[in-house]
From TrEMBL:
Residues annotated as domain Ribosomal protein/NADH dehydrogenase: 18-91
Any one Gene Ontology molecular-function term assigned to this protein's record: structural constituent of ribosome
Protein source organism: Triticum turgidum subsp. durum (Durum wheat)
PANTHER family for the chain: 39S RIBOSOMAL PROTEIN L43, LARGE RIBOSOMAL SUBUNIT PROTEIN ML43
This protein's name: Large ribosomal subunit protein mL43
Annotated GO biological process: mitochondrial translation
């Protein structure tokens, strides 16, 4: 994804094995889809690494020096292309778990509402009586 017009994925590293069966899909991906990916994304540096005896993966290196690794073991070439485009379209930020569902700078001073909360209201005030006409006087009690 572009942040202020600058693509954040700097380098895409494709790790594969030339012998393993789990790398069958990524070898087909490198023959069919990888040249088109390089052509469509000239800003992206694509590197292929032969790593024998390991499962295949895609590693995205971003401009903010974060890395994301996606395992593509036993995936079809179309699914690997989807994972590569997800790496390209992400910002590279770390995933942060939110502590609450609602993020605010000013939390409630009243506290959180629960079903066990018992609130009793007692109003003790009286309204004055007033006269609408000579004969009708309204008094609130």
């Amino acid at each position: 994804m572009a942040l202020r017009g600058v693509w954040q994925l700097q380098k895409l590293v494709v790790n594969f094995c030339d012998w393993g069966g789990s790398s069958k899909g990524i070898r087909a991906f490198m023959e069919s889809h990888l040249p088109a990916l390089k052509e469509k994304n000239p800003q992206l540096e694509v590197v292929t690494q032969l790593v024998r005896g390991q499962h295949p993966n895609l590693k995205g290196i971003y401009k903010n020096h974060n890395e994301r690794v996606v395992c593509v073991r036993n995936l079809a070439p179309e699914d690997i292309m989807l994972q590569a485009s997800r790496l390209r379209c992400s910002l590279g930020r770390k995933v942060v778990k939110l502590r609450t569902r609602h993020v605010t700078k000013r939390p409630s001073v009243q506290g959180t509402w629960t079903t066990e909360l018992k609130i009793s209201f007692s109003f003790s005030f009286s309204l004055p009586s007033f006269c609408l006409s000579r004969r009708l006087i309204i008094t609130y009690a």
